[in-house]
Amino acid sequence: MSEVAKKVEEARRRADLNYFLYLNERAAEEVELLQRAGRCGSLCGVALAVKDNIEVAGMPVTNGAPYMRRIADKTAAVIRRLMAEGAVVLGKTNMHELALGATNVNPHFGPAKNPHDPSRITGGSSGGSAGAVAIGVADLGIGTDTGGSVRIPAALCGVVGYKPPYGKMPLEGVYPLAQSLDHVGFFARSVRELVRMLSAVGWAPQQLTPLRRFRFAVLMGVAEPTKYVEKAFWRAVEALEGIGGLRDEVFIDAVRYSSARAAILLSEAAANYYDYLRSAADYMGRDVATLLSAGVALPAVAYITAKRVKEEATQFFSSLLKRYDVVVSPTTATEAVPIEEAASIAVRPRLLAYTELFNLTGHPAISVPAPASGLPVGLQIAARDEDVLLAVAASYEEEAL
């Protein structure tokens, strides 16, 4: 049995975790055909878990909503590029409805369950892709990230989640949520594996150059993490210092930035899904319908003001990242919460507080596992320069884990 066939079988065996909405039973056969034709490149047999708001020709696409289900007639640009090197789509993964949420508790398809404790959330909205990578079924997960939807589930599932800079990854064939904030992102089990796979298609450097000395800022005052997250985070900070990092602490008032990101998100999401809100509101999850309705009600002045704050935030962090090589924070302010608590009004801001900053500014950011004794915790690292970001993340990984 080939490695891809084993992955399909394992995905089927672990169906209780609810990571896949569609499983490609022909994945192994597709790789064999490429091999016979001599067209299997540097990613030959790499198994992709593709979030179900990204199109793959001939496969269903739902955007996490059964009322949007159809069979895709084209493949998204980002997936085409990976497939051109021999990667194969293992399946389409569970997600938060319309990608408008951070828990991946989907009222139509059921919740994606945390691989470390199935009674808890994976985080979202790309939770199925994160979980598939975490259990070893997928080699590379593909998701979207509008406020942290790659980095949040990466942190809660104990894998690496990378959001490249705004505009780098093509969004052709990807359902939009909020075009000013949307990114395509990736999951892998390690930074080195992530870089190896992305470098094969020119999206990461071929080699990482370790930094012997670098300056980093710890973002303070954004949100109050749980004691469990706080302990793991400061152990991660010690590991950064152990590889040559020189630390400062920088206090910021993130409330204005958070409000601006929310206004942009809700306004643009409401514009994108207004027709569905009118025709399918009774079928939508309550959280999604409520958020879209809030977006419809927002005045134009709130959106225009938020876009100005977005520019201010970008300038602020660009200036900060001229003084520091990277800035760091916990990825989330909480560990994975039980599924039955996911609807609590307190959960959403605790998941989004740190990650949403870098959707607003567009800077590249990555979540890597922090040293934790139980449930996973993420360390978020952001930078101006992708090569520096990935080099620091890889060096940290070797030191901390």
Structure description:
- This protein is of the alpha/beta class and 401 residues long.
- The protein folds into two domains: 3-199, Alpha-Beta Complex (Amidase signature (AS) enzymes), CATH 3.90.1300.10; 214-256 and 300-400, Alpha-Beta Complex (Amidase signature (AS) enzymes).
- It has 13 helices and 13 strands.
- Strands 1-5-2-6-8-7-12-13-11-9-10 form an eleven-stranded mixed sheet, with helices on both faces. It has a two-stranded antiparallel sheet with strand order 3-4.
- Helix 1 (3-13) runs antiparallel to helix 2 and helix 8 packs across helix 10.
- The mean pLDDT is 97.
- Enumerate the spans where pLDDT stays under 50 for 5 or more consecutive residues: none
Any idea what the CATH superfamily of the largest domain is called? Amidase signature (AS) domain
Report how far the terminal alpha carbons are from each other.
Answer: 32 Å
CATH fold-level label of the largest domain = Amidase signature (AS) enzymes
Give the second-level CATH assignment, the architecture of the largest domain: Alpha-Beta Complex
On the 0-100 scale, what is the average pLDDT?
Answer: 97
Order of helices and strands: HEHEEEHEHEHEEHEHEHHHEHHEEH
Proportion in β-strands: 15-25%
Task: Quickly count the helices.
Answer: 13
**Oligomeric status:** single chain
CATH class bucket of the largest domain? Alpha Beta
Q: Helicity level, as a percent range?
A: 25-40%
Tell me the strand order in the biggest sheet: 1-5-2-6-8-7-12-13-11-9-10
Structural class: alpha/beta
The number of distinct structural domains comes to: 2
Please count the beta strands (DSSP E, at least 2 residues each): 13
